[in-house]
Design a protein that fits this description.
Length: 412
């Protein structure tokens, strides 16, 4: 489909995306070298312990609560609780692939043991985020080294994730007790990134039940969490008894009707991941649709504000993590496009965004920081992690740099 057709939504389309990105490859090698040096500085502190989800004053402390104070009642510093610890393990795996330094592999294997214990004892596992946690830790370790303990832990996590599948609605419930009337039947767009754990589980076990659940959830997201204009809800509710779709809302976005930037980015990448496992072209097309809206709302320096309702002049904070996630989705998308004009457009967009992240949002701005990517937003409404680094932003920034500097096999 030509770029002159409806493949591009109306909006602030960047004309220069149509021209080949004029970027010397050394910029990305410089960027990944700087990132690896920063990770090196964190290795000793965070080998058998985990960083917090986001920084305070651009510095990661030890993880204590994750998002649940009940998950770590003894307040053990660096505990493997919350939804973000797998991003740190994923960072270590990426650096191992880049450097071949076995210290990083040893750190990954140490953390695999922690994830194995977490799954076996069901520590803070009552969440759909098991995909984030185990794809980037145990599935990645298994793919890299054939680690059987990692495989076993990831399969245990997949089984736990299936406990959240609501048969009548065909979704994985996001949060909370399955009988909680305030959470019952809630899917969130983030969960598209958790589905690869289930797709992978079907591949390695031969049991189709995992893939069937993931595929059904992705189809329901396609039908209901995306609005007709190519924007997305953060969350969507279903009747758990009849399966009837009820309403779209937000928790982290500006409003129920706005387009939360990180959610849109999860959709760009998440639908592509479902395409990889199902070859259902509707997912590929939806990834493009969401990407078009995201790119059209990109501001002058191409790094989006925390909600796509906002752009330059709004006074609102940026969310660099959203742009890093979207770039990874774009870099996967272009591998599966036949139309050369489309492929060039999305390639140009991805490379220019990565360049801006490196030049304006990375550790250049705060050499004392132990993070990789600054100026992110965790939860704007609660003023939590605003204009700070966060683990997922660091991970996806490093994944993007890995994608543009070497051939890379996905952990997802």
């Amino acid at each position: 489909m030509s770029l002159n057709s409806s493949v591009l939504n109306e909006g602030m389309q960047k004309e220069f995306f149509k021209s080949k990105a004029d970027i010397h490859p050394t910029i990305f090698h410089n960027a990944i070298t700087a990132a690896i040096q920063k990770v090196e500085g964190n290795l000793e502190s965070f080998t058998d312990k985990f960083p917090a989800s986001s920084t305070i004053g651009n510095s990661y402390a030890f993880n204590i609560h994750g998002d649940s104070r009940a998950a770590n009642p003894e307040k053990i510093p660096g505990a493997n609780v919350g939804w973000t610890t797998g991003f740190w393990t994923g960072i270590l795996s990426l650096v191992y692939e880049q450097t071949g330094d076995t210290r990083y592999l040893q750190a990954v294997e140490t953390q695999v043991n922690s994830f194995k214990e977490r799954a076996e004892n069901e520590i803070d596992c009552n969440t759909h985020d098991l995909g984030f946690l185990y794809s980037l830790s145990c599935v990645a370790a298994y793919k890299l080294t054939g680690n059987e303990a990692a495989k076993s832990a990831a399969l245990s996590a997949a089984k736990l994730l299936m406990n959240r599948y609501v048969e009548a609605a065909g979704i994985l419930q996001a949060w909370g007790n399955m009988d909680d009337p305030n959470e019952r039947g809630r899917m969130i767009i983030d969960c598209l990134m958790n589905l690869p754990l289930l797709y992978w589980a079907s591949e390695v076990t031969g049991d189709p039940v995992y893939k069937a659940a993931a595929y059904k959830h992705a189809q329901n997201a396609l039908s209901h969490i995306v609005r007709p204009d190519g924007t997305t809800y953060h969350t969507f509710f279903y009747d758990v008894f009849t399966g009837e779709p009820l309403k779209g809302t937000t928790l982290q976005g500006h409003s129920d009707d706005s387009c939360w930037a990180r959610g849109q980015a999860w959709g760009i990448y998440g639908f592509m991941l479902s395409y990889l496992y199902t070859k259902d072209t509707r997912f590929l097309e939806m990834s493009k649709t969401l990407a078009n809206y995201f790119l059209n709302r990109s501001p002058e320096d191409l790094v989006v504000y925390w909600d796509l309702d906002f752009t330059d002049g709004s006074g609102e904070p940026r969310d660099s993590s959203s742009s890093a996630i979207a770039v990874c989705g774009l870099l996967e998308l272009i591998k599966h496009l036949a139309d050369e004009e489309e492929k060039q457009y999305y390639t140009n967009a991805a490379l220019n965004i990565v360049k801006s992240l490196y030049e304006h949002y990375s550790i250049h701005q705060d050499e004392a920081s132990n993070a990789l990517l600054l100026h992110g937003v965790y939860f704007k409404k609660y003023n939590h992690g605003v204009d700070e680094a966060n683990l997922w932003g660091d991970y996806f920034y490093l994944e993007a740099l890995t994608r543009v500097t070497k051939d890379w096999n996905l952990y997802w």
